[in-house]
Write a structure and sequence with these properties.
Chain lengths: ~220, ~250
């Protein structure tokens, strides 16, 4: 367990000191959200209606942008091979890196979403539901993303390929995030059901994704 | 089970596989041609037009087998990937590699025929119906498999990583299917028609399904043969280069 925490702390410190990864993700989030009204017209009613969907999709794209870095630097300087031969199982090392990605990218994006929501005339009453669903859904984004990052470690044009591989895996998260927001917006019962399924998807991803990602990494390191 | 095991074990030798597949391929391909030709004869000259859909119902005789083969193709890829990762069967990757583009082609055929049918029936080429959406996502998964394989130089590594991705896809496909169904019922009621199919239409449909399934396996076997030959050519070329290298080194001394 101490190995897991050390690795997590190391990755968080690296993300913090580097800073550019989070800045890029947040900047991309802002730009996508700002471009949409320019494409759709400034009708505030329309924007208010589509705000949760726009924010969710922009969040997926912004999180996707930072995924290739999950293993890349460690692969280049050889520390990934050290992790693979360390006593800590590679599955746990992958999980630590995915948790670090969630804390350094998922949480900041989820917290930035309400601010961007103001630009889209998002109903203020929906802000707690928006932040809650995004916090519940982003672990799945980081963990499923770790599979894609591991598979494309040695691939050419890995960025585009990663999007093709990972975005279909994000569909359940997106659907239940949006449906929870729909229930919260219309005041119907059912928010809790969607929210719990969202949590279930995240938990399943946390449990299963490191196995697949570590398997993919081992194939490339041996 | 044991008979199945010995058969797969015996087929593990590529040379023997080439012999056996060469012997049975003409039968499968011939069967496919006969069944499809007979099905098309029934479809165009015997089967009645639907009382609601008119002649457009004929699209169904190609659409339904394509949709079925789209799913079966992924099954073949998944089983082959499992065989590669768990049993390290030497032909498993050849099978997975050959099946992926064929499955993708049938998925595309299902999507295209479905949307051609949708235009006169629904008035639009595309609706975000749960089944259409699921098949579209299946198509994306196929594209992901093909793209991942083509982006890696090392062929053995590409084979194994693609197999991992195929198995991840198998794990997540039911969840995607479930969530798309949920999403669809949330937005609009299903437009699926629930009338039972008359025998005059069911028989041509069944014959067509058998014919296209045989076509799939004929293409799959041919694709596997081509892949084995391609690998042999590559190995020979590498050996030739090596011989040339050695000769050059000998002359330089």
């Amino acid at each position: 367990m101490s190995g897991f925490l050390t690795l997590l702390k190391r990755d968080l410190v690296l993300a913090l000191r580097e800073g550019s990864a989070l800045g890029t993700a947040l900047g991309f989030f802002l730009v996508v959200v700002a471009m949409l009204p320019l494409g759709l017209g400034p009708d505030l009613k329309l924007l208010s209606r589509i705000a949760p969907g726009v924010l969710w999709i922009a969040l997926l794209l912004a999180a996707l942008l930072s995924l290739p870095r999950m293993f890349e630097a460690d692969h280049e300087d050889g520390s990934l091979e050290v992790m693979a031969t360390a006593p800590l199982p590679l599955e746990l090392a992958v999980a630590a890196k995915a948790v670090a990605h969630w804390i350094s990218t998922g949480i900041p994006l989820a917290l930035a979403a309400p601010v961007l929501g103001l630009m889209l005339n998002l109903d203020i009453g929906l802000v707690p539901a928006l932040v809650a669903t995004m916090l519940a859904g982003t672990p799945a984004i980081s963990f499923l993303g770790s599979i894609g990052a591991a598979l494309t470690l040695k691939a050419r044009r890995s960025g585009l390929l990663l999007a093709l591989l990972v975005l279909p895996l994000y569909i359940p998260t997106l659907i239940f995030g949006i449906s929870a927001m729909g229930f919260a917006g219309s005041g119907q019962e059912g928010f809790l059901a969607s929210f719990l399924i969202l949590l279930a998807i995240s938990l399943a991803a946390v449990a299963a994704a490191p196995i697949a990602a570590a398997g993919a990494l081992r194939l490339q390191l041996s | 089970m044991t008979a199945m095991q010995t058969l797969t074990q015996r087929l593990a030798n590529p040379t023997r596989f080439m012999e056996i597949s060469r012997a049975i391929l003409p039968w499968i391909a011939g069967g496919a041609a006969l069944f499809i030709a007979y099905a098309m004869y029934l479809v165009f000259f015997v089967a009645p037009p639907d009382y609601q859909q008119g002649e457009t119902v004929k699209i169904m005789y190609i659409h339904v087998p394509s949709a079925w083969l789209a799913m079966m193709g992924y099954g073949v890829v998944a089983i082959s990937s499992f065989g590669l990762l768990v049993f390290r069967h030497p032909l498993a990757d050849v099978s997975a590699k050959a099946a992926a583009p064929i499955g993708a082609a049938f998925t595309l055929a299902a999507l295209v025929t479905g949307s051609l049918w949708g235009k006169p029936m629904w008035g639009t080429y595309w609706v975000w119906d749960a089944r259409l959406t699921s098949v579209l996502i299946l198509f994306f998964l196929y594209l992901g498999l093909i793209a991942l394989r083509s982006s890696l130089e090392d062929e053995t590594l590409a084979a194994k990583l693609t197999a991992v991705l195929a198995l991840v896809g198998v794990a997540i496909l039911p969840i995607i299917k479930f969530s798309v169904d949920w999403w669809n019922t949330l937005h609009q009621p299903s437009t699926a028609f629930t009338s039972t199919v008359d025998p005059s239409m069911r028989t041509p449909l069944l014959i067509s399904a058998v014919g296209f399934t045989l076509l799939f396996f004929a293409l799959h076997l041919k694709g596997m043969q081509n892949e084995i030959l391609r690998r042999r050519v590559k190995a020979m070329r590498l050996a030739q280069v090596e011989r040339g290298d050695r000769a050059f080194a000998a002359r330089a001394e």
